[in-house]
Design goal:
Helices cover 31% and strands 14% of the residues. The chain has an 8-stranded mixed sheet with strand order 2-4-3-12-11-10-9-8, sandwiched between helices. Strand 11 and strand 12 form a beta hairpin. The radius of gyration is 21 Å and the shape is globular.
Length: 392
């Protein structure tokens, strides 16, 4: 008998300090002083999540290509204090890897928006199977969605070509992308506020005119969550099951961790964490044209090739040489995607190479346009070395 030992007035609580809002309006784990720790541990920090592992692992034969280490761009980008890891894979060969002293080959790292590439695989399958019309409107599938997406075509949502009031300005702590963190389980709600779900959050996005009247993309992470919700509703399969298919196809060695909202919806806009080797393994799915390690289709070669070759709007300067199409970034040769804070995955079907790069920017915003461009060009230079050509 405990008597009054556990009486309510003797219980002391506090808001979780990692998930609270620090001075400057950012969550504590995402301040310049703690962001590196946060990106290395987001799989532990997020309030809710799933951890998935592949049954069969893609065995990598280690055959280090010294030319990669000798590239000036590689020397420069891996010698900074913000560097975490770099892994290069071609087929079943590990061509190169390098890690910072506080990181390593078995450590998970937040990949942020690289997670969005799963949408390309999921929709490639839907299109290949004749299950979806990309000219259909979002509201046709989600009648409860708000004006920010209801009248937009699925194609425009895939291409980041929708205008609405969702803002993604990492310089501004009041931007909607940071409000979104509450629904993603990365931030505590304001005192007294209800805990909104990811579906509830995207339903609240509004627009007076969804048409993008300019030549540049309108990058909005919420697009990925809208598309993920549609894929789940259309197929009747939970996103968890669709992710399991992709993870099995990639042949990952370590855990794939993804944040979820409080209802268990995986955050496909940026919630995944992986090792560098496993991210490079995953990139090989795009090299193989959507095929898994056992020949199973989890994407579409036609859809991936269309992302490389179709007309699409470009990024703002200074990255206006980069286009965005079908939820992938491309120059016309390779496909890839970046992640907030300094991550990049590049998959080159021409050379058969996938490059995974991790770093953590420690400036106030965690977003440096020049640095991001430099990291992409480094990955591109690695992939374009003369390894021999053709899908592996």
């Amino acid at each position: 008998y405990l008597g009054n030992f556990m009486a309510p007035n003797t219980i002391t609580t506090m808001a979780n300090p990692d998930l609270g809002v620090a001075a400057g309006g950012r969550t504590q784990w995402n301040t310049p002083e703690t962001r590196r720790w946060g990106f290395h541990n987001l799989h532990r920090i997020s309030r809710y999540g799933l951890s998935l592992r592949s049954r069969d692992v893609l065995v990598l034969r280690r055959d280090i290509d010294r030319r990669i280490a000798e590239l000036d761009a590689v020397r420069r980008m891996t010698s900074t204090t913000i560097f975490s890891g770099l892994a290069v894979v071609r087929g079943n060969t590990l061509l190169y890897e390098h890690y910072a002293p506080d990181f390593g080959p078995d450590r998970l790292h937040s990949i942020q928006s690289i997670t969005k590439t799963t949408i390309n695989l999921i929709y490639g399958q839907l299109v290949a199977g004749g299950q979806i019309d990309l000219e259909a409107k979002v509201g046709d599938h989600l009648p409860e969605i708000g004006s920010g997406y209801a009248g937009a075509s699925l194609r425009d949502v895939l291409d980041m070509n929708v205008a609405n009031d969702y803002s993604e300005d990492y310089e501004d702590p009041a931007s909607a992308v940071f409000d979104h963190e509450t629904a993603m389980g990365w931030r505590l709600p304001a005192p007294g506020a209800a805990e909104i779900t990811n579906r509830g959050f995207v339903c609240g996005i509004e627009s007076d005119d969804i048409v993008n009247h300019g030549p540049e993309i309108l990058y909005k992470s919420a697009n990925s969550d809208v598309l993920a919700w549609i894929a789940e509703r259309l197929t009747g399969r939970p996103l968890r099951d669709q992710l399991i298919d992709i993870i099995e196809a990639a042949g990952l060695e370590h855990s794939f961790h993804i944040s979820t909202d409080r209802e268990g919806m995986p955050i496909l806009d940026g919630g995944a964490s992986m090792t560098a080797r496993d991210l490079a393994r995953y990139g090989q799915i795009f090299v193989r044209g959507g095929l898994g390690i056992n020949g199973e289709a989890v994407g579409s070669a036609t859809f991936i090739d269309e992302a490389r070759t179709a007309e699409a709007k470009h990024f703002p300067a200074p990255r206006d040489w980069l286009r965005y199409c079908l939820h992938l970034q491309t120059t016309g040769r390779w496909v890839g995607h970046g992640g907030y804070g300094g991550q990049y995955l590049l998959a080159d079907p021409e050379s058969g190479v996938s490059v995974a790069f991790f770093s953590v920017l420690e400036d106030e915003s965690g977003y440096d346009q020049q640095y991001i461009g430099d990291s992409i060009l480094m990955c591109q230079e690695i992939a374009e070395l003369p390894f021999g050509y053709g899908r592996r």
